[in-house]
Amino acid sequence: MSDTLHPQHTALSLAASGVPVLPLRRGKVPFGNCPACADNACGGRPNMKTPGPCRCPGVCHAWAAATTDPVVIVSPAWVAAWRRAVCVGYHPGGAGLTVVDLDDADAIAWARTALPATRTVPTTRGEHWIYRGAMASRNAVRPGVDIKSTMAYARYLGPGTGTMTDLPDTVRALAVKESSPARPTPHAVAVSVKAGNGECPHRTPTYLNRGIAMAEQRITAASSAVHATVYRTFLAVLSRHGRCGCLTDTHVTRLFTAAQSKGETARHCADAWTNARTTLGL
Q: What residues contact residue 260 under an 8 Å CB cut-off, 6+ apart?
């Protein structure tokens, strides 16, 4: 069944299998927020499990609108959106999946040598490689390659072919590499304490505190994509200090406070922190 001709029917079928769906309008993009939700004035929907203060019945907040609830999918507001929709989108992370979006022939050739085979779906210009397992989303991890999983949406283009395999570390490493600071860290990450003084080398005003202050500034300076900025900042901090015992509750509180000053909820901060730890294997 073509999702172009019957997007709502396709959406209901996907939702029944546990895949959160949403309608996509012309340009293969989500519908814009309603006036009450414009600029996230309602507080937004920080994640799929806890919608937050927003109770908008419409198709708002892009990927966060994705749902498996058939009552929502056939509700009047959604029916109106389906009539204008050109295709079905889905939230891969909400279904426990990761899509490696390969935009061209060069990207596909790279994937065939660098990544384990998995379910493949042809796209207009390339292929979607779908793995079992969720991770952080990130665009342009290398030329022609995007990762779509949590807090992202992908266009549904059919079931694809091949056996779906577990998300490999090689894909997770792509996002971690791009999230890490460009310059090498002044100190190696170590689990054991430094011999002689019993202190972790990161516990210095010139390194750890400066790093936390820079992370706070990065978050508070964000003028858009606050959710993504918070997650990437947490990931960068943990990639440097998450394995050596440097971080204290005071440091984490400073980061959470900076995020909440930009409108993030405490729950979203906790989820972003947990997801970052999971991505890094902490």
A: 266, 269
> What is the Cα–Cα distance from 222 to 41, expressed in whole angstroms?
17
Q: Using CA atoms, how far apart are residues 39 and 28, in angstroms rounded to an integer?
A: 21
Exposure string for 202-229, b = 16+ CB within 10 A, e = fewer: bbeeebbeebbeebbebbeebeeebbbb
Report pLDDT digits (tens) over 10-26: 999 999 999 999 999 98
Q: Cα-Cα-Cα-Cα dihedral of 269, 272, 278, 281, to 10°?
A: -80
Q: What Cα–Cα distance (Å) separates residue 251 from each residue in 19, 115, 212, 258?
A: 37, 37, 7, 11
- Nearest-Å Rg of the Cα atoms of the chain is 20
Q: What is the pLDDT of residues 137-173, one digit of tens each?
A: 888 888 999 999 988 999 999 999 999 999 998 898 8
Question: According to DSSP H, which parts of the chain are helical?
Answer: 7-16, 70-73, 76-84, 105-114, 169-179, 210-220, 226-241, 249-261, 266-280
Calpha distance 200→208 (Å, rounded) = 10
C-beta separation of 52 from 58 below 8 A? no
Sign of CA dihedral 235, 236, 241, 247: negative
